[in-house]
Design goal:
- There is one protein chain.
- The chain is mainly beta.
- Helices cover 2% and strands 45% of the residues.
- The protein contains one helix and 59 strands.
- The strands form 15 sheets. Strands 41-42-43-44-48 form a five-stranded mixed β-sheet, with no helix packed on it. Strands 55, 56, 57, 58 and 59 form a five-stranded mixed β-sheet that branches. A four-stranded antiparallel β-sheet has the order 2-3-4-6, with no helix packed on it.
- Mean pLDDT is 93; it is low at 1-18.
Length: 721
């Protein structure tokens, strides 16, 4: 009885811990209280009260208020939460702002003295910022953030009543890459102005030309629903702010290397520059929180208060005289100490942390996977990984034959290009099955072991695109021979249970479909549609389906309805069970369709159907929690460490030891470690060292780019050299 109570108590505690939400304001480790005293800031959003007497602004994620003439700033909102973009309500009694206090960017409102702060919106995924009030003070319009395959996404304008609610959509994004934001109302509330990326195409581009037209200021008519481009042209147009009398729109435009404050007269369409000393706007890249910080007019329709180059400024639009509005802040921030782990620098070996394309043998005894360019096999659970072949070509995408004796896979060689090959699990020579040069992916056996299906695809600008013709899904006899085209679309092909059809994933973005066809390409059927799934894998008996959605893995029955079924983690139409805690990749089933396997980095996971659903025969009434750690695959490889000693002599050396510079110095390097640095007359160079005279040269510590975009193919295929 005591044991039962103890287990029940532990279960309740685990459930409570699982349901506990992340608290932004809580202490998450030791911190350091740091005093801040400053009269300048970075990227400060500001607003002016309707009576023109006060300025509210943000700095370092906190919100302050001060007289419009400047002076000591009073703190309104502080703490760990990131809170920015304050805006006065039309009556000046309240201030809206963007806050992640509740665990995601939402729109909050507080009294003008900082009291009674509360959230107006409750978005948990499509986050909000850049809110402005409707002139009647009843609604807030904010930029709502949408993502697809890329995290930075695009924006839409949504309107929320001050009492809350899910909001009303005002504008629609043209795609998931062209951003929009920075809403602003006309004084009568009829028109909503906003900036939008109107550059051509439907893909995001890095480093677009800001001297051309990227952003345009658009206008939504809330009576007719029509949207019209208002300010266009070279240098773009962002951050519209309508004057209180509605006569002008102040905005920001790029002129060569400068971001310039411009004025647009609504009646005539004339525009002219006011001030070219702004901080640089963000037109070239994503600007989720706005392309330029919020600014505002004074009620006199003659002055604009704005941020530029660390200061708050005021400009007279007639004389163009610019003044600095001084502010002073004295406050304290708590900075949580970073979590740091001891790092082993350049050991003799390294663990392979990204295991890819793992497959389990039908009997569950072996794991075969790709790691560091080659295929490896590991006897489960505790075997040591060893190479499957001794070939030099890169190897990818293994799959077992139904009896577990053969492995089919693809290869890449810079001279011979790609091929489909097979080899016995026990080793021996590999057999090449394809004769055409090309790019081959995702092979798999039929259930009788007599056929193999695969995808013939293309390369990229790194490995080239020669021999990339006749793309599509093909089948071939298990011993090689003629390639038979099934269809020209699709990826991740798999044979049906009876071998008469091919399953495959088709489409992209939010229009993906899981289809099947006969081997001759006929009788196309769509079994599933999915917005977010990137891998869909039916069990061998076709009674279950596993899929990945937003990095996590799920399992569900395979419903047969005669029409497409929407496959989604959120589906309530049929049972869907999440089987991963954090993520899962390379899903594959056991031969008996009872167990799903996957990997995360260097760990291997498995979950039986009896651990997923209580209605499965053999399951208990209480399902175990998902595993937090898996089986360590344990592939350890030798570091590529050079041999020998090299010495650079007579060099000018920047040591990074304060301002120290050695004008005539020597650096001695043994293998991959610097052994000595100093003046040449004080450093002894080993007799067996290779000496390089670096006279007239300057040597400095290396700059390491730890961020790179490698252009590999869809299966990670990379050049050998």
């Amino acid at each position: 009885m005591k044991k039962t109570i103890l287990l029940l108590s532990i279960s309740i505690l685990l459930l409570a811990a699982e349901k506990k939400k992340w608290d932004v304001t809580a202490e998450h480790g030791p911190g350091l209280k740091t005093p801040i005293e400053t009269d300048e800031g970075t990227w400060m959003n500001l607003d002016v009260s309707p009576d023109g007497r006060q300025i509210v602004f943000d700095l370092l994620g906190d919100i302050f208020i001060m007289p419009v003439t400047g002076g000591e700033a009073k703190l309104l909102r502080d703490g760990p939460a990131f809170e920015v973009q304050p805006r006065f309500s039309p009556d000046g009694k309240r201030i809206s702002f963007t806050s992640d206090h509740a665990g995601g960017d939402n729109i909050w409102v507080m009294n003008a003295d900082g009291s009674d702060a509360h959230a107006v919106t409750a978005e948990s995924f499509r986050l909000l910022n850049n809110a402005v009030w409707t002139p009647d003070g009843q609604y807030l319009v904010a930029r709502k953030h949408f993502t697809s395959r890329r995290s930075l996404g695009a924006g839409e304008m949504w309107m929320y009543h001050i009492s809350g609610g899910s909001g009303l959509q005002l504008t629609k994004r043209p795609n998931d890459q062209k951003d929009a934001g920075e809403p602003c109302f006309s004084p009568d509330g009829r028109y909503l102005f906003f900036s939008q990326d109107m550059s051509p195409g439907n893909r995001f581009e890095y480093n677009k030309d800001p001297n051309g037209q990227i952003y345009v200021i658009r206008r939504l008519d809330r009576v007719t629903g029509k949207i019209k481009n208002i300010i266009t042209g070279e240098g773009g147009a962002v951050r519209p702010q309508v004057s209180p009398n509605g006569k002008y729109i102040a905005f920001v435009r790029r002129i060569r290397a400068k971001s310039v404050l411009f004025l647009y007269e609504r009646s005539s369409g004339e525009m002219w520059p006011l001030f070219d000393g702004l901080s640089k706007d963000q037109q070239e890249t994503w600007a989720i929180f706005g392309v330029y910080p919020n600014f505002q007019w004074l009620p006199d329709n003659r002055h604009i208060i704005f941020y530029a180059q660390g200061k708050i400024r005021k400009i007279d639009i007639e004389s163009r005289k610019v003044e600095t509005v001084p502010f002073h802040i004295k406050t304290e921030f708590t900075i949580t100490r970073a979590v740091r782990f001891k790092q082993e620098i350049s050991s003799e070996t390294f663990p392979v942390k990204m295991i890819r394309q793992a497959v389990t043998s039908p009997d569950g005894q072996w794991l075969v996977f790709h790691g560091a360019g080659y295929l490896w096999k590991k006897e489960l659970p505790d075997g040591k990984p060893e190479r499957v072949t001794d070939d030099t070509a890169f190897e990818y995408a293994p799959a077992f034959s139904p009896d577990g004796t053969w492995i089919v896979y693809t290869t890449w060689n810079d001279q011979e290009t790609g091929a489909v090959r097979k080899i016995r699990l026990t080793g021996g020579g590999a057999k090449k099955l394809t004769t055409r040069k090309g790019f081959y992916f995702e092979p798999s056996f039929s259930n009788d072991g007599k056929k193999i299906v695969f995808r013939r695809g293309g390369g990229n600008f790194v490995i080239g695109n020669s021999n990339a013709t006749d793309r599509g899904l093909y089948w071939i006899a298990a011993d090689g021979g003629k390639m038979h085209l099934i269809c020209e679309e699709g990826r991740q092909p798999l044979f049906s249970n009876d071998g008469t059809r091919i399953f495959y994933l088709s489409g992209g973005g939010d229009k993906k479909a899981f289809k099947s066809r006969r081997l001759d390409g006929g009788d196309e059927r769509t079994h599933f549609t999915s917005k977010y799934a990137v891998q869909i894998v039916p069990s061998p008996d076709e009674k279950w389906v596993a899929f990945t959605e937003l990095f996590n893995a799920y399992v569900a029955p395979f419903p047969v309805t005669g029409k497409p079924v929407d496959l989604s983690a959120a589906s309530k139409a049929y049972p869907v069970k999440k089987v991963t805690r954090d993520a899962g990749s390379y899903l594959h089933w056991s031969g008996d369709s009872r167990t799903l396997h996957w990997t995360i980095g260097p760990q291997y996971f498995s979950r039986d159907l009896t651990e997923c659903f209580t209605f499965v025969p053999g399951a208990t009434d209480s399902l175990p929690p998902v595993d937090t750690t898996g089986l360590k695959i344990g592939l350890e490889l030798k570091e590529d460490i050079p041999e020998g000693i090299i010495a650079f002599t007579n060099a000018r050396i920047i040591t990074m030891k304060g301002d120290e510079i050695i004008e005539s110095g020597t650096i001695v390097i043994e293998r991959n470690r610097i052994k000595a640095v100093g003046r040449s007359d004080s450093i002894s160079v080993p007799e067996d060292a290779k000496v390089i005279d670096a006279g007239g040269k300057t040597i400095m510590p290396g700059l390491i780019d730890v961020h790179a975009h490698e252009w590999n193919s869809s299966n990670g295929m990379a050049p050998q050299e």
